[in-house]
User: Fold TrbM protein from Methylobacterium gossipiicola.
Amino acid sequence: MSRTLVERVARSVLPAAILATSLMAGPVKAAESENDYPTEARADYIFGCMAANGQSRESLSRCSCSLDALASILPYDRYVQASTVLSMRQGIGQRANEFKSTKVFDDKVAELRRAQAEAEIRCYRGGA
Assistant:
C-alpha cells in the first residue's frame, strides 16, 4: 500500500517539478544569450564607441546601452563573424575582394548593420 501511495505522489509531483525546472531555465537561457559577449569584447566595443561619440559620461551610458541592445539582438559568434568580414574587407588584393563580393559575407554584415541600427534607435534616439 505504501508503495502505491509513493508511486502516485511521484507521478503527480514529478511532472510539476519538471515543468517548474524548465520554466526557471528559460529566463536563464535568455540572460545567457545576452551576456555571451566576453568582457574584453565589451570593453573594446565601448572604448571604440566612446572614441567616435565623445569621452563623456553620457557617451559611456549610451555606448553601454548600445552594446547591451546589440548583444540582445545578435549572438556573440555572429558578431565576431561580421566584424571579421568587415576587417577583411579593408584589405587589398584577391582575398579582400572575395570578402567584398560574396553574398554570404554580405548577409553577415547586413545582419550586424541591422542590429547596430536597432541599438542606435534604442539608445541614441530613444533618449536613453
Observations:
- The two ends are 64 Å apart (CA to CA).
- Residues 37-125 form one domain.
